[in-house]
Design a protein that fits this description.
236 residues, 47% strand, 8-stranded mixed β-sheet
Length: 236
């Protein structure tokens, strides 16, 4: 079985890549330039499994100008005082989890400037279930319905995710869908999923409530998110 933390880090990185587009890496000179004008996407997620074990991870994508800009690799980036490490184009690390209602503090700095953003960890949805009881990706016309109960305190939206893993380390595929906070179910059509799910042997599914914030940058475009919710897993 692929470690749970690995799959969640893969999910965070997949969402970051989908949101940010592609760009080159390792530009020079950011130690002498202001972070003003940076394009920043920061993701914190607190996953809770069926035994109430929390797994917290964070990923921050920083680029020059916009989502098509070059990735900036020589900044100092932290989340709640814990340093994130630059790898595969983003800053990322597992973290000490923050309970719902707590603050997540993102800090990005270089030799000249420091910028901070705070976002609140939302309450998690509860009662995650798969209506069909099992997953079958062989039928292209098939579908599956996830159901859950709304969180006590409503944030911005709900993100539903699937992460499938296969017999090899590179057989990892992810799917995400955002729905309103009032939603209590989502039907997922097989025809809308990437082809990789058909060779998956294990699957995680989760429902995370999402709260959104930004860094205190005078210019540029920054967004940070805190997500919290349950996940479950199945053998396929």
């Amino acid at each position: 079985m692929v470690p749970v933390r690995f799959r969640f880090v893969v999910l965070l990185l997949t969402v970051a890549v989908v949101s940010s587009g592609c760009g080159n890496s390792n530009p020079g000179g950011s130690e002498d330039e202001s972070p003003d004008g940076l394009w920043v996407r920061g993701y914190y997620a607190n996953f809770v499994d069926e035994s109430r074990v929390a797994v917290a991870s964070c990923s921050v994508d920083v680029r020059m100008g916009d989502s098509d800009g070059e990735a900036v690799s020589d900044l100092t980036v932290s989340c709640n005082g814990e340093e994130l490490f630059y790898s595969q184009g983003v800053y990322t690390s597992d973290l000490t989890d923050v309970a719902p209602g707590g603050d997540v503090v993102f800090v990005i700095s270089n030799a000249r400037d420091e910028y901070t953003g705070v976002v609140v960890v939302p309450d998690p949805p509860t009662g995650l279930q798969l209506a069909e009881g099992s997953w079958d990706f062989d039928d292209p016309s098939g579908s599956h319905t996830l159901t859950w109960d709304c969180a006590a305190t409503v944030a911005d939206s709900i993100m539903v995710f699937l992460v499938g893993t296969g017999p090899h380390s590179w057989n990892v595929v992810a799917y995400t869908k955002y729905v309103p906070c009032a939603a209590t179910e989502l039907t997922i059509q097989n025809s809308n999923l990437p082809d990789g799910f058909s060779v998956s042997t294990e699957l995680e599914a989760g429902v995370l409530q999402v709260d959104t914030g930004a860094l205190d940058m005078g210019t540029g475009d920054s967004r940070i998110w805190a997500r919290c919710g349950p996940f479950a897993w199945w053998d396929l």
